[in-house]
Amino acid sequence: MARRQAKRRKQREARQWRMPAIPVARITRLTVAVATVVLSYHFSSILLDKPIRAITVEGPFQRVSALQIEEAIADELSHGFLSADLHAIRERVAALPWIDQATVARRWPATLEIAVTEQVPAACWGEAGLLNTRGELFVTNARHIPAELPRLSGPEDRSADVARRYLTIREQLIPMGLDVRRVHLDARGAWELTLQNGVDIRLGRRDVDQRTDLFIDVVANIVASREADIDFVDMRYSNGFSIGWREDASPATDVERDTAARSLVAGRQE
Protein backbone atom coordinates (compact mmCIF):
# COMPACT_ATOMS: atom_id res chain seq x y z
CA MET A 1 0.00 0.00 0.00
CA ALA A 2 2.77 2.34 0.98
CA ARG A 3 4.56 1.59 -2.28
CA ARG A 4 1.46 2.46 -4.30
CA GLN A 5 1.05 5.76 -2.45
CA ALA A 6 4.71 6.66 -3.04
CA LYS A 7 4.37 5.80 -6.73
CA ARG A 8 1.24 7.93 -7.10
CA ARG A 9 3.01 10.85 -5.31
CA LYS A 10 5.95 10.67 -7.76
CA GLN A 11 3.54 10.62 -10.71
CA ARG A 12 1.77 13.75 -9.37
CA GLU A 13 5.11 15.56 -8.92
CA ALA A 14 6.16 14.61 -12.46
CA ARG A 15 2.90 15.98 -13.87
CA GLN A 16 3.33 19.26 -11.88
CA TRP A 17 6.92 20.01 -13.19
CA ARG A 18 7.00 22.00 -16.40
CA MET A 19 9.81 23.33 -18.56
CA PRO A 20 10.24 27.03 -17.72
CA ALA A 21 8.84 29.25 -20.43
CA ILE A 22 11.50 31.04 -22.51
CA PRO A 23 10.47 34.49 -23.77
CA VAL A 24 11.69 33.79 -27.28
CA ALA A 25 9.96 36.80 -28.77
CA ARG A 26 11.52 39.17 -26.25
CA ILE A 27 15.02 37.76 -26.79
CA THR A 28 14.56 37.94 -30.52
CA ARG A 29 13.50 41.60 -30.36
CA LEU A 30 16.51 42.44 -28.13
CA THR A 31 18.92 40.64 -30.47
CA VAL A 32 17.52 42.42 -33.49
CA ALA A 33 17.80 45.78 -31.73
CA VAL A 34 21.45 45.23 -30.75
CA ALA A 35 22.34 43.99 -34.23
CA THR A 36 20.64 47.02 -35.77
CA VAL A 37 22.66 49.42 -33.60
CA VAL A 38 25.94 47.63 -34.33
CA LEU A 39 25.31 47.44 -38.06
CA SER A 40 24.17 51.06 -38.17
CA TYR A 41 27.35 52.18 -36.42
CA HIS A 42 29.48 50.01 -38.70
CA PHE A 43 27.91 51.24 -41.93
CA SER A 44 27.87 54.84 -40.68
CA SER A 45 31.59 54.59 -39.94
CA ILE A 46 32.22 53.25 -43.42
CA LEU A 47 30.20 56.04 -45.00
CA LEU A 48 31.82 58.76 -42.86
CA ASP A 49 35.38 57.37 -43.07
CA LYS A 50 36.34 59.49 -46.02
CA PRO A 51 39.91 59.93 -47.25
CA ILE A 52 42.02 62.54 -45.46
CA ARG A 53 41.84 65.62 -47.65
CA ALA A 54 44.16 68.04 -45.82
CA ILE A 55 46.88 68.24 -43.17
CA THR A 56 47.73 71.33 -41.17
CA VAL A 57 51.07 71.49 -39.36
CA GLU A 58 51.84 74.14 -36.76
CA GLY A 59 55.26 74.73 -35.23
CA PRO A 60 58.33 76.98 -35.11
CA PHE A 61 60.02 75.14 -38.04
CA GLN A 62 63.56 76.24 -37.27
CA ARG A 63 65.08 72.76 -37.44
CA VAL A 64 62.24 70.66 -38.91
CA SER A 65 60.04 71.49 -41.89
CA ALA A 66 56.38 70.71 -42.51
CA LEU A 67 57.45 68.66 -45.55
CA GLN A 68 59.59 66.39 -43.34
CA ILE A 69 56.62 65.79 -41.07
CA GLU A 70 54.32 64.95 -43.98
CA GLU A 71 56.87 62.51 -45.40
CA ALA A 72 57.22 60.80 -42.02
CA ILE A 73 53.50 60.04 -41.80
CA ALA A 74 52.79 59.38 -45.48
CA ASP A 75 52.11 55.66 -44.92
CA GLU A 76 49.51 56.39 -42.25
CA LEU A 77 47.54 58.73 -44.53
CA SER A 78 46.28 55.83 -46.63
CA HIS A 79 43.74 55.13 -43.89
CA GLY A 80 40.47 56.98 -43.76
CA PHE A 81 39.69 60.02 -41.65
CA LEU A 82 38.14 57.94 -38.86
CA SER A 83 40.32 54.85 -39.12
CA ALA A 84 43.64 56.72 -39.06
CA ASP A 85 45.71 55.75 -36.01
CA LEU A 86 46.41 59.08 -34.29
CA HIS A 87 48.74 57.49 -31.75
CA ALA A 88 50.90 55.95 -34.48
CA ILE A 89 50.99 59.27 -36.36
CA ARG A 90 52.04 61.15 -33.22
CA GLU A 91 54.79 58.60 -32.50
CA ARG A 92 56.18 58.98 -36.01
CA VAL A 93 56.28 62.75 -35.73
CA ALA A 94 57.82 62.68 -32.24
CA ALA A 95 60.56 60.32 -33.49
CA LEU A 96 61.93 62.94 -35.88
CA PRO A 97 65.20 64.62 -34.82
CA TRP A 98 64.70 67.96 -33.06
CA ILE A 99 61.01 67.27 -32.32
CA ASP A 100 60.30 67.53 -28.60
CA GLN A 101 56.52 67.04 -28.44
CA ALA A 102 53.72 66.46 -30.94
CA THR A 103 49.92 66.42 -30.85
CA VAL A 104 47.56 65.10 -33.52
CA ALA A 105 43.79 65.74 -33.77
CA ARG A 106 40.95 65.20 -36.25
CA ARG A 107 39.03 68.19 -37.61
CA TRP A 108 35.77 67.50 -39.41
CA PRO A 109 35.20 66.70 -42.16
CA ALA A 110 38.58 65.39 -43.42
CA THR A 111 41.51 67.27 -41.92
CA LEU A 112 44.31 66.21 -39.59
CA GLU A 113 45.84 68.91 -37.39
CA ILE A 114 49.41 68.39 -36.19
CA ALA A 115 51.18 70.70 -33.75
CA VAL A 116 54.85 70.31 -32.82
CA THR A 117 57.37 71.92 -30.49
CA GLU A 118 61.07 71.69 -31.23
CA GLN A 119 63.88 70.80 -28.88
CA VAL A 120 65.73 73.72 -27.31
CA PRO A 121 69.47 72.96 -27.02
CA ALA A 122 70.74 73.99 -23.58
CA ALA A 123 74.26 72.52 -23.67
CA CYS A 124 76.73 70.62 -25.81
CA TRP A 125 77.47 67.06 -24.66
CA GLY A 126 80.88 65.67 -25.50
CA GLU A 127 82.11 66.38 -29.00
CA ALA A 128 78.85 66.68 -30.95
CA GLY A 129 75.90 65.81 -28.70
CA LEU A 130 73.18 68.20 -27.62
CA LEU A 131 71.22 68.26 -24.38
CA ASN A 132 67.79 69.85 -24.02
CA THR A 133 66.60 71.94 -21.07
CA ARG A 134 65.71 68.74 -19.16
CA GLY A 135 69.24 67.37 -19.51
CA GLU A 136 68.18 64.76 -22.09
CA LEU A 137 70.53 63.86 -24.94
CA PHE A 138 68.41 64.34 -28.07
CA VAL A 139 71.10 64.64 -30.77
CA THR A 140 74.28 62.56 -30.65
CA ASN A 141 76.05 63.89 -33.74
CA ALA A 142 75.03 67.46 -34.48
CA ARG A 143 76.53 69.00 -37.60
CA HIS A 144 76.62 72.45 -36.03
CA ILE A 145 77.21 73.27 -32.36
CA PRO A 146 76.25 76.84 -31.37
CA ALA A 147 79.36 78.51 -29.98
CA GLU A 148 77.47 80.04 -27.07
CA LEU A 149 76.41 76.70 -25.59
CA PRO A 150 78.23 75.46 -22.45
CA ARG A 151 80.27 72.28 -22.82
CA LEU A 152 79.31 69.32 -20.65
CA SER A 153 81.03 65.95 -20.69
CA GLY A 154 81.24 62.70 -18.77
CA PRO A 155 80.22 59.03 -18.94
CA GLU A 156 77.37 58.45 -21.40
CA ASP A 157 74.92 57.35 -18.71
CA ARG A 158 75.58 60.42 -16.51
CA SER A 159 74.47 63.18 -18.87
CA ALA A 160 71.41 64.02 -16.76
CA ASP A 161 73.54 64.25 -13.57
CA VAL A 162 76.06 66.54 -15.24
CA ALA A 163 73.28 68.74 -16.62
CA ARG A 164 71.62 69.02 -13.19
CA ARG A 165 74.85 70.07 -11.51
CA TYR A 166 75.53 72.61 -14.23
CA LEU A 167 72.08 74.17 -13.86
CA THR A 168 72.28 74.22 -10.04
CA ILE A 169 75.71 75.89 -9.91
CA ARG A 170 74.94 78.32 -12.71
CA GLU A 171 71.75 79.50 -10.99
CA GLN A 172 73.79 80.42 -7.89
CA LEU A 173 76.68 82.06 -9.76
CA ILE A 174 74.73 84.28 -12.14
CA PRO A 175 73.73 86.80 -9.40
CA MET A 176 77.46 87.16 -8.57
CA GLY A 177 78.35 88.06 -12.13
CA LEU A 178 79.88 84.65 -12.87
CA ASP A 179 78.84 81.94 -15.30
CA VAL A 180 79.81 78.34 -16.04
CA ARG A 181 81.42 77.53 -19.36
CA ARG A 182 82.32 73.87 -18.88
CA VAL A 183 81.44 70.98 -16.57
CA HIS A 184 83.35 67.70 -16.75
CA LEU A 185 82.85 64.45 -14.83
CA ASP A 186 85.67 61.96 -15.34
CA ALA A 187 85.48 58.18 -15.19
CA ARG A 188 86.63 58.20 -11.54
CA GLY A 189 83.76 60.48 -10.53
CA ALA A 190 85.80 63.68 -10.12
CA TRP A 191 84.15 66.99 -11.04
CA GLU A 192 85.79 70.01 -12.64
CA LEU A 193 84.25 73.30 -13.77
CA THR A 194 85.53 76.08 -15.97
CA LEU A 195 83.96 79.49 -15.53
CA GLN A 196 83.20 81.89 -18.36
CA ASN A 197 86.26 83.92 -17.36
CA GLY A 198 88.55 80.88 -17.79
CA VAL A 199 89.08 80.05 -14.11
CA ASP A 200 89.12 76.29 -13.41
CA ILE A 201 87.33 74.99 -10.30
CA ARG A 202 88.47 71.55 -9.12
CA LEU A 203 85.83 69.90 -6.96
CA GLY A 204 87.13 66.33 -6.92
CA ARG A 205 85.02 63.29 -6.20
CA ARG A 206 84.26 63.47 -2.47
CA ASP A 207 81.82 65.75 -0.65
CA VAL A 208 81.07 67.53 -3.92
CA ASP A 209 77.93 69.25 -2.64
CA GLN A 210 79.70 70.59 0.46
CA ARG A 211 82.67 71.79 -1.60
CA THR A 212 80.32 73.48 -4.03
CA ASP A 213 78.59 75.29 -1.17
CA LEU A 214 81.97 76.42 0.20
CA PHE A 215 82.96 77.73 -3.21
CA ILE A 216 79.68 79.65 -3.59
CA ASP A 217 79.74 81.06 -0.06
CA VAL A 218 83.43 81.97 0.25
CA VAL A 219 85.47 81.72 -2.93
CA ALA A 220 83.12 83.00 -5.62
CA ASN A 221 83.35 86.60 -4.43
CA ILE A 222 87.16 86.45 -4.58
CA VAL A 223 87.02 85.01 -8.10
CA ALA A 224 84.55 87.69 -9.19
CA SER A 225 86.80 90.49 -7.94
CA ARG A 226 90.15 89.02 -9.11
CA GLU A 227 89.17 86.90 -12.12
CA ALA A 228 92.00 88.26 -14.27
CA ASP A 229 94.59 87.15 -11.67
CA ILE A 230 93.31 83.66 -10.80
CA ASP A 231 94.27 80.54 -12.76
CA PHE A 232 92.41 77.89 -10.75
CA VAL A 233 90.71 77.16 -7.46
CA ASP A 234 91.31 73.78 -5.84
CA MET A 235 88.47 72.70 -3.53
CA ARG A 236 89.80 69.17 -3.01
CA TYR A 237 90.52 69.60 0.66
CA SER A 238 88.75 68.14 3.65
CA ASN A 239 88.26 71.61 5.15
CA GLY A 240 89.32 74.32 2.75
CA PHE A 241 90.64 75.36 -0.64
CA SER A 242 93.66 76.84 -2.40
CA ILE A 243 93.91 79.48 -5.12
CA GLY A 244 96.36 79.25 -7.99
CA TRP A 245 97.39 82.76 -9.05
CA ARG A 246 98.60 83.62 -12.53
CA GLU A 247 102.28 84.42 -12.88
CA ASP A 248 101.61 88.04 -13.78
CA ALA A 249 98.94 88.49 -11.11
CA SER A 250 99.21 91.27 -8.56
CA PRO A 251 99.83 90.06 -5.01
CA ALA A 252 96.86 88.83 -3.06
CA THR A 253 95.40 91.24 -0.56
CA ASP A 254 95.64 90.63 3.16
CA VAL A 255 91.93 89.71 3.24
CA GLU A 256 92.34 87.13 0.46
CA ARG A 257 95.43 85.61 2.09
CA ASP A 258 93.69 85.45 5.46
CA THR A 259 90.57 83.87 3.92
CA ALA A 260 92.59 81.17 2.16
CA ALA A 261 94.75 80.53 5.22
CA ARG A 262 91.74 80.13 7.52
CA SER A 263 90.05 77.80 5.05
CA LEU A 264 93.12 75.57 4.79
CA VAL A 265 93.53 75.08 8.53
CA ALA A 266 93.44 71.29 9.12
CA GLY A 267 92.68 70.87 5.43
CA ARG A 268 93.86 67.72 3.68
CA GLN A 269 93.77 67.27 -0.10
CA GLU A 270 92.11 64.12 -1.42
What is the mean pLDDT?
82
- Give the DSSP E fraction (strand runs of 2 or more residues): 15-25%
CATH superfamily of the largest domain: Cell division protein FtsQ/DivIB
Query: What's the total count of β strands?
Result: 12
Number of helices: 7
Order of helices and strands: HHEHHEEEEEEHEEEHEEH
CATH topology of the largest domain: Rossmann fold
The total tally of domains equals 2
Oligomer state of the chains in this structure: single chain
Shape: elongated
Based on CA atoms alone, the radius of gyration comes out at: 37 Å
Second CATH tier, the architecture of the largest domain: 3-Layer(aba) Sandwich
Low-confidence stretches: none
CA distance, first residue to last residue: 112 Å
Helix fraction? 25-40%
CATH class of the largest domain: Alpha Beta
The helix-and-strand class reads alpha/beta
Compile the SSE list and pairings.
Elements: H1 2-16, H2 24-48, E1 54-58, H3 66-72, H4 86-94, E2 99-107, E3 111-118, E4 123-125, E5 129-131, E6 137-139, E7 151-153, H5 159-173, E8 180-185, E9 191-195, E10 200-204, H6 208-225, E11 230-237, E12 240-245, H7 254-263
Parallel strand pairs: 1-3, 4-7, 7-8, 10-11
Antiparallel strand pairs: 2-3, 4-5, 5-6, 8-9, 9-10, 11-12
Report on this model:
The chain is an alpha/beta fold. The chain has two domains: about 60 residues, membrane protein fhac (Ubiquitin-like (UB roll)), CATH 3.10.20.310; about 140 residues, Cell division protein FtsQ/DivIB (Rossmann fold, 3-Layer(aba) Sandwich), CATH 3.40.50. Helix content is about 35%, strand content about 25%. The chain contains seven helices and twelve strands. A nine-stranded mixed sheet has the order 6-5-4-7-8-9-10-11-12. A three-stranded mixed sheet has the order 1-3-2. Helix 6 links the parallel strand 10 and strand 11.
